[in-house]
Specification:
alpha+beta, SH3 type barrels, 6-stranded antiparallel sheet, elongated
């Protein structure tokens, strides 16, 4: 059998056909964190959020580099259990970007909404009062793929 025959046979083999459904990926509700954003909009949101707590320009630039694969979460419903986040305390004179952790729960109490975090490297859990922090959620590979696809479709 020569190369052309092998290639033609491979084209006819249904087990080698692409079964990826792009429409299903775009509609999948599990990935609601990046439905209409663009990379530029995500960056603008991060910069705007950092400016809102009066950080100096050097610190904003430093944090933007560290938050390259993250999205600012302006609304509590945008947070996803199991995703990795980093945060800054709004009230700190010079807010320090956290090492981060995984969201394990979102708790609604009389005193506010709290995000329960598991910090993996130190086996420690903490609770953040949502309104007291700027929260940045890591973009998954699926989120990045959706961004690439939707950005490509709109340009």
């Amino acid at each position: 059998m020569n190369f052309q025959e092998i290639y033609a046979e491979a084209l006819r083999d249904p087990s080698l056909q692409n079964t990826l459904n792009i429409d299903e990926i775009l509609v999948n509700d599990q990935h609601h964190t990046v439905p209409t954003s663009t990379p530029a909009k995500i960056t603008e949101d991060i910069i705007r959020s950092l400016k809102s707590i009066n950080l100096d320009q050097d610190l904003i630039e430093d944090y933007c580099v560290k938050l390259l694969d993250y999205q600012y979460m302006d609304e509590i419903h945008e947070l996803t259990l199991g995703k990795y986040i980093r945060w800054l305390r709004r009230a700190d004179k010079i807010p320090k970007l956290s090492i981060g952790g995984v969201i394990t729960d979102i708790i609604i109490e009389d005193s506010g909404v709290y995000v329960k975090i598991k910090i993996i490297n130190v086996q420690y859990s903490c609770k953040l009062k949502y309104d007291d922090f700027l929260i940045f959620q890591k973009l998954s590979n699926d989120d990045k793929l959706r961004l690439t696809i939707t950005t490509g479709l709109t340009s």
